[in-house]
Structures are given as structure tokens and as C-alpha cells.
Here is the input.
Amino acid sequence: MEEGFTLLEVLVVLAILSVFAGIVGTVIGTSILSTEIEASEEGMEALKEALLSYYADVDGFPTATGDAEIDLADLVTDPGVGGWDGPYISAGFENNDFVKDAWKRTLAYSHSPGASSCTLTSNGPDGIYGNSDDLVMTIDATAVYKRKVDRIRMELEIVKAAAQADAANNGHRRPVRRLLPFGRVLSPRRVAQRVPGGSQPVHQLRAGHGPGWRR
Here is the structure.
């Protein structure tokens, strides 16, 4: 006759199963949390690239009003600013998902007028702002602006060299658009922005200051 389990043996088995279940639950919970954090960071990274592209075209970031869904809509819909060439976001338009983290909470967007940086913040898993689990991404456009300034300087040097060569060869100045390859004409609007770190005029050629400039 086979003997059954004693009460003590049953309790020991239940205790082992309980510990095992707790470990498995913790591992699964940690894995899910890690996936959600990674997804949020990927979404913020996509927004970062969109904001830098916007900055490169518009010479600034969207105005921050405290409502990211309204502010970052400028990445999708032309807000009426010069140079806008969007949309800068290719997915997530429905329900404004592109401005939400993996927990479906709207990100915080902050930017000071005239600054070359902005910040995106997710309140993290607990949804409470200011805790250690917050996800914060600062976006600095200084490098983008510097590349743009360097490109303008380079183009101006091309114009200058072409004009000098043309004057030397022909004894007179022709319209700028005839001096450049493929008839390319630089933007005539004045570029004298403040380079981050100090005021530095880039150039001051404006429409009407010489032949060939056109609006």
C-alpha cells in the first residue's frame, strides 16, 4: 500500500512553487518594463531627429506652450513659418501617438525662445514627474546651426571667387546667377544670426545690393 504525501511535504512543495512563481513573475515584469522603456526611448529619438530637421529648415524649434500635442504638431502641419519643409514625422499621426510614450502618456516638451536646445520628458513607468525613473532627452541643435553657417560661408566664397574671376576676365560684373554652376542662386535674404556662443555676422548680401540678386 502506497503512502500519500504528508502535510509537511505538501507545504514544502507549495513554498517552492510560490518562490518559483515569484521569480518568473519578476523576470517577466522586468522584461516588459525594459521593453516599454526601450520603446519610449526609440520614440523620443525619432522626435529628436524630426526636431533637428525642423530646426535646420526653420532656424528654431517649435514654440513651447506647455501642451506638447499642440506644440509638436508643427512637425506635421506647416505652422506658417519660413523654410518649413515637412512633415518631419512619417508615422504615428493617429491620436497624436508620436508625442506619447509607451504608456500612452503625452511627453512634456520644453524650449526657451531663442535657445538652441529643447527637452523631451517622459514621466516614466510610474507616470509621476520628477522621479528617478523619468526619461529625459535634451536636444542640442548647435552642431546643426554651425553646419548651416559653414555652408553659407562656403557658398559666399564661391560667389566671391566667381565674381572676381568674371570681373578679371570680362571687365564687368554679370548677374550672380550666371556666375554659378547650373545657374544656382543663393538666398538673397540677409543672414546675420547669432551663432551660439557669441554674435557673428555670417554675411550681409541683400536683394538689390548687386546685379543678379532676386527674391
Remarks:
- Residues 181-215 have pLDDT under 50 and may be disordered.
- The two ends are 104 Å apart (CA to CA).
- The chain has two domains: 7-140, 145-199.
- Strands lie at 108-110, 117-122, 135-140, 194-195, 198-199.
